[in-house]
């Protein structure tokens, strides 16, 4: 976006809605409807199989297809997704990381096809493409969990993609360094700024050292780096965070990379305000939370976001409907077009309060950046578990504040009396649901695609990709060839899995423990855990499992930490496990209870598989509990399928949950429950 002179009215930011579900056709209809409502940019949500490099018919994809985004399996799906949307005129954000190169190659291929169909010069059209691929793998290891490959090969894919886009798609942002999920994983403002900038340093160093970009072109690389941040409800602190972020980015790019052009050093960032901060209890309160969070990144002109997307009020309940997304878009439009916000210079220049807070965040971030660099940089700090353990500890501290009441959540731990909400009178119809037939249709469609394509061309392109992966060659051209040949998402990722291997990131669970507020209640529950263990003649053991492809591990990690603190022996193997793996671990470890965490909406598919697997293994007496974003009607279905307890975000007191889990164990063992 162009920046105005001081006396001009600022242009509104790009307005997006994070959207996509079911199928490419359904998502295309949604995008075109949103654009007609005044949305000025597209933000594509991909489903978890696409994000993790699997086709819809892979066993790990079961229950996940089309749930949290749109499934894109091949070039045919990408054509359908953008049918009737001229890509040369669009501004598209794609929330995709490990397979970012693949999805951008599909996007570029569709743009080429559109150019040829219109009789336009292909290179001219590619030069007009604007948008962003998230492509930040470091935060995937730390928070979101949709990584595939180890850090080294992942950085290579990012470097190759940046080098290719700088030369061929110069207006595209090839990486959107994403601190958003770091905050959701517990990062303080200082940690969010520090770890995002450490990621930027790792990426820029990798590009510079790859030799693919001339020294004089590093300014072009820096100018195309964008950021994607989180804005919480403490909007003064969040606004100061962004001012500190901008100042540090300017400093690093000038001093470390020698970028002399101030415009190239400008912090370019987009925002989604905090989704995991939204509450299931009294969800109507989420409306004012969203508005206040939006102010944090729009009030200060010197640190104003250039793209904003807002969650819907009911995202803590399930998938928002089109009407809910429209409401979120209208919030942005009212602020941008009805108020006078964009008519003034920066409102906070010269504020002693703001300057002091900005200086505090900058000083803390510098210290943490230096600490990470001393460890060897962001990749080393991921591999050692340092950054992950810091986030787990910070989130544990936040949760202790909520449980003690020191951190107030209106409608949750204070002011919780309420009237019935007219916004929820529709019951299950108050959220969008994805018909299970969507997955069957996607599986059948990808099977038909494989039957109709040129298998010889597919095999040639995959062989060339494997060969290139074994060298230091840039992988983007080989990936483009795969896209044009009709290779599927799973085949592209599978070929690179063969060469690069897969990765399991540290969980960070061992770093956090209870202290301070709530310790007395923890000791009470610990006594119950120890007494129950004594009655059974062994220590109580709990398996915490993440079935399916859902990588949101924050809740599972906090449950594991609190279970350990209350005396359970905890088995937690991280994310992305099949029901069979969870069953095998439960039987092998002889656990007394299995706790499953599912936030992706696949609970009705993957949870019963675990229950059935335990019965088949002769361990049907092991109780299973479930936590996640689970609508009330679904919770009833799960209980009917044999689930002992269902916990949702309204159950925020972890120590009380541990107490209830002791009751579950005692019930299953035939012991009296007080």
What does this structure look like?
InterPro entries: Acid_CoA_mut_C (IPR006159), Cbl-dep_enz_cat (IPR016176), Cobalamin-bd (IPR006158), Cobalamin-bd_sf (IPR036724), MeMalonylCoA_mutase_a/b_cat (IPR006099), MMCoA_mutase_a_cat (IPR006098). This is (R)-ethylmalonyl-CoA mutase. The chain has 674 residues and is of the alpha/beta class. The chain has three domains: 13-133 and 475-506, no CATH class; 179-289 and 309-412, Methylmalonyl-CoA mutase (TIM Barrel), CATH 3.20.20.240; 519-669, 3-Layer(aba) Sandwich (Rossmann fold), CATH 3.40.50.280. 50% of the residues lie in helices and 9% in strands. The chain has 26 helices and 15 strands. The strands form three sheets. Strands 1-10-9-8-7 form a five-stranded parallel sheet. Strands 2-3-4-5-6 form a five-stranded parallel sheet, covered by helices on one side. Strand 8, helix 11 and strand 9 (269-273) form a beta-alpha-beta unit. Helix 9 packs parallel to helix 11 (235-255). The chain is globular. It starts with 13 loop residues before the first strand and ends in a 6-residue tail after the last helix. The model has no long low-confidence stretch (mean pLDDT 91).
Strand order within the widest sheet? 1-10-9-8-7
Rg to the nearest angstrom? 25 Å
Number of domains: 3
Cα end-to-end separation:
63 Å
Please report the number of helical segments.
26
CATH class of the largest domain: Alpha Beta
CATH topology assignment of the largest domain: TIM Barrel
Uncertain runs: none
* Residue share in helix: 40-55%
CATH architecture label of the largest domain: Alpha-Beta Barrel
How much beta, percentage-wise? 5-15%
Largest sheet: 5 strands, parallel
Count the E strands. Answer: 15
The shape, in one word, is globular
CATH homologous superfamily descriptor of the largest domain? Methylmalonyl-CoA mutase
Structural class: alpha/beta
Q: Taking all residues together, what is the mean pLDDT?
A: 91
Cofactor: adenosylcob(III)alamin
Family: Belongs to the methylmalonyl-CoA mutase family.
Pfam family, one: MM_CoA_mutase
Protein name: (R)-ethylmalonyl-CoA mutase
């Amino acid at each position: 976006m162009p920046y105005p002179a001081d006396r001009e009215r600022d242009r509104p930011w790009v307005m997006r809605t994070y959207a996509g579900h079911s199928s490419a056709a359904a998502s295309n209809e949604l995008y075109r409807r949103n654009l007609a409502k005044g949305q000025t940019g597209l933000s594509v949500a991909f489903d978890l199989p696409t994000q993790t490099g699997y086709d819809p018919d892979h066993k790990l994809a079961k229950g996940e297809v089309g749930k949290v985004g749109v499934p894109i399996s091949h070039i045919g799906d990408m054509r359908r997704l953008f049918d009737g949307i001229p890509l040369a005129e669009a501004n598209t954000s794609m929330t995709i990381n490990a397979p970012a190169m693949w999805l951008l190659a599909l996007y570029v291929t569709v743009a080429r096809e559109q150019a040829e169909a219109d009789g336009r010069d292909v290179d001219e059209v590619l030069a007009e493409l604007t948008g962003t691929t998230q492509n930040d793998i470091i935060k995937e290891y730390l928070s979101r969990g949709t990584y595939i490959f180890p850090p080294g090969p992942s950085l290579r894919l990012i470097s190759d993609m940046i080098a290719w886009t700088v030369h061929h798609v110069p207006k595209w942002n090839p990486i959107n360094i994403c601190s958003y999920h770091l905050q959701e994983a517990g990062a303080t403002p200082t940690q969010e700024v520090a770890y995002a900038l450490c990621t930027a340093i790792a990426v820029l160093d990798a590009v510079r050292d790859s030799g693919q970009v001339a020294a004089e072109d590093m300014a072009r690389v820096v100018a195309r780096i964008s950021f994607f941040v989180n804005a919480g409800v403490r909007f003064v602190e969040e606004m100061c965070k962004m001012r500190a972020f901008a100042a540090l980015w300017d400093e690093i790019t000038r001093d470390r990379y020698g970028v002399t052009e101030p415009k190239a050093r400008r912090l370019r960032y987009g925002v989604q305000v905090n989704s995991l901060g939204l509450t299931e209890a009294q969800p109507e309160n989420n409306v004012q939370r969203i508005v206040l969070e939006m102010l944090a990144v729009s009030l200060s002109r010197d640190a104003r976001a250039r793209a904003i997307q807002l969650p819907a009020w009911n995202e803590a309940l399930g998938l928002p409907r089109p009407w809910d997304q429209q409401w979120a878009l209208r919030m942005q439009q009212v602020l941008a077009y009805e108020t006078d916000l964009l008519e003034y210079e920066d409102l906070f220049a010269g504020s002693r309060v703001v300057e002091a807070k900005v200086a505090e965040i900058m000083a803390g971030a510098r210290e943490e950046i230096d600490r990470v660099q001393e460890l060897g940089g962001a990749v080393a700090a991921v591999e050692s578990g340092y950054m992950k353990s810091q986030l787990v500890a910070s989130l544990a501290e936040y949760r202790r504040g909520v449980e003690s009441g020191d951190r107030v959540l209106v409608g949750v731990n204070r002011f919780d009396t309420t009237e019935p909400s007219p916004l929820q009178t529709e019951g299950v119809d108050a959220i969008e649901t994805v018909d299970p037939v969507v997955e069957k249709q996607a599986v059948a469609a990808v099977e038909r695609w494989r039957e109709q394509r040129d298998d010889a061309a597919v095999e040639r392109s995959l062989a060339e990709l494997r060969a290139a992966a074994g060298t230091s060659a840039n992988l983007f051209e080989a990936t483009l060839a795969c896209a044009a040949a009709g290779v599927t998402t799973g085949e592209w990722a599978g070929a690179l899995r063969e060469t690069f291997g897969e990765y399991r990131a540290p969980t960070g669970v061992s770093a956090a423990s209870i202290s301070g507020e709530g310790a007395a209640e923890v000791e009470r529950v610990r006594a119950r855990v120890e007494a129950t263990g004594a009655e059974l003649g062994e220590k109580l053991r709990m398996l915490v499992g993440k079935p399916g492809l859902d990588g949101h591990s924050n809740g599972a990690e906090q449950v594991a930490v609190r279970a350990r603190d209350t005396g359970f022996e905890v088995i937690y193997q991280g994310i992305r496990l099949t029901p069979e793996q969870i069953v095998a671990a439960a039987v092998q470890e002889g656990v007394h209870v299995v706790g499953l965490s599912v936030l992706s909406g696949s609970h009705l598919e993957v949870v019963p598989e675990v229950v059935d697997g335990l019965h088949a293994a002769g361990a049907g007496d092991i109780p299973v509990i479930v936590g996640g974003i689970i609508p009330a009607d679904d919770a009833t279905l799960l209980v009917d399928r044999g689930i002992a307890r269902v916990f949702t975000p309204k159950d925020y007191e972890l120590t009380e949950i541990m107490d209830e889990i002791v009751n579950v164990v005692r019930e299953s063992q035939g012991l009296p429950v007080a």
